[in-house]
């Protein structure tokens, strides 16, 4: 199929988290902005300062930009870089989760609340206690229990948290090599009010097809960032970006806490360094929201797109139309 068009072109958008709320698709993206910062592995060029919410009544139809839903300037604990967000609904309220650097330059995760899916969102004064790194994704299971997945290595600092304490000196160690297990994403159960972790943070183990944890050296398969969880036919699907190899991949498990078993790539590399997505069902079809840099040809000025997904006979995901 020909390359899909960006959902919006009035602003640069990335990291789309899509959900169906009140019968419409709402997309919670990062809002990229122009700057002169050179690309580096810390991701300094992703220097975002606010969030917009998008919505649409149908896939392929008009996309509405609801304007600014939350600003970094209004969040007391944030110093800079409001990165990839997500939103969840519980008991008629909407909870917007977002990562940002705190005043010490450490990535943390905050929460903001609204009565409406498009916001505006009122942020809590401090980050979620015990939260760290980037790319929160909130999955609410059928029993009402919410789980917050998060983490990203290198610029997302997850490699600094191997002991449970932040070790700045581990930043440059990046990740192990050889057949040691990769660094895995994290998950925490959310309390009923959706504002704090209920218990501790756990590792989300992703096993390879041999049943052993994916090796750190397997950059085509190991987790880098962009966690997303959805449920299909009673199974839990954990999807993610492989970072420096630029794939979107997925793994399947029987519990929202894992372990998950690698099930293949969903998307081959697109234009631009980062790749980050979400997966959502709408009116009986499944969709992949993702981004590329086709609107700008610059890594930090991205645009959100959508493609249809299907499941094969084994329940593995693939694009409905092949990627060109
Ligand atoms: O948008 C900033 C960062 O780039 C996100 O947090 C990552 O997932 C990558 O897309």
From TrEMBL:
Q: Where is this site: Important for catalytic activity, responsible for pKa modulation of the active site Glu and correct orientation of both the proton donor and substrate?
A: 135
* InterPro entries given in the database record: Glyco_hydro_43, Glyco_hydro_beta-prop_sf, Glycosyl_Hydrlase_43_Enz
Q: Which UniProt keywords apply?
A: Carbohydrate metabolism, Glycosidase, Hydrolase
Spell out the molecular function terms from Gene Ontology: hydrolase activity, hydrolyzing O-glycosyl compounds
Q: Name the SUPFAM superfamilies on file.
A: Arabinanase/levansucrase/invertase (SSF75005)
Which GO annotations describe the biological process of this protein? carbohydrate metabolic process
Q: Which family does it belong to?
A: Belongs to the glycosyl hydrolase 43 family.
PANTHER family to which the protein is assigned, alphabetical: ENDO-1,4-BETA-XYLANASE, PUTATIVE (AFU_ORTHOLOGUE AFUA_2G04480)-RELATED
The protein in question is named Glycoside hydrolase family 43 protein
Species, as recorded: Saxophila tyrrhenica
Source organism phylogeny: Eukaryota, Fungi, Dikarya, Ascomycota, Pezizomycotina
């Amino acid at each position: 199929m020909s390359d899909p068009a960006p959902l919006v072109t009035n602003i640069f958008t990335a990291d789309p988290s899509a959900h169906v709320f009140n019968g419409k698709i709402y997309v919670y993206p990062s809002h990229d902005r122009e700057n002169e910062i050179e690309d580096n592995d810390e991701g300094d060029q992703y220097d975002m300062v606010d969030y917009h919410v998008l919505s649409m009544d149908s896939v392929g139809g008009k996309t509405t930009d609801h304007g600014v839903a939350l600003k970094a300037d209004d969040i007391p604990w944030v110093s800079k870089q409001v990165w990839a967000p997500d939103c969840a609904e519980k008991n008629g309220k909407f909870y917007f989760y977002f990562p940002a650097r705190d005043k010490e330059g450490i990535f943390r995760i905050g929460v903001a609340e609204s009565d409406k899916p498009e916001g505006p969102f009122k942020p809590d004064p401090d980050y979620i206690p015990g939260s760290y790194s980037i790319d929160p994704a909130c999955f609410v299971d059928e029993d009402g229990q919410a789980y917050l997945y998060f983490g990203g290595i290198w610029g997302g600092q997850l490699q600094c948290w191997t002991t449970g304490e932040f070790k700045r000196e581990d930043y440059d160690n990046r990740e192990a090599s050889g057949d040691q297990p990769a660094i895995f994403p994290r998950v925490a159960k959310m309390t009923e009010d959706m504002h704090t972790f209920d218990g501790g943070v756990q590792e989300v183990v992703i096993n390879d097809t041999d049943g052993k944890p994916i090796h750190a050296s397997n950059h085509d398969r190991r987790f880098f960032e962009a966690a997303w969880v959805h449920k299909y036919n009673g199974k839990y699907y954990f999807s993610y970006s492989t970072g420096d190899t630029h794939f979107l991949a997925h793994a399947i498990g029987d519990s929202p806490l894992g372990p998950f078993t690698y099930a293949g790539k969903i998307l081959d590399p697109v234009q631009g360094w980062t790749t980050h997505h979400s997966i959502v069902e709408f009116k009986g079809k499944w969709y992949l929201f993702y981004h590329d840099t086709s609107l700008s040809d610059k890594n930090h000025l991205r645009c959100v797109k959508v493609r249809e997904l299907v499941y094969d006979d084994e329940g593995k995901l693939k694009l409905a139309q092949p990627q060109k």
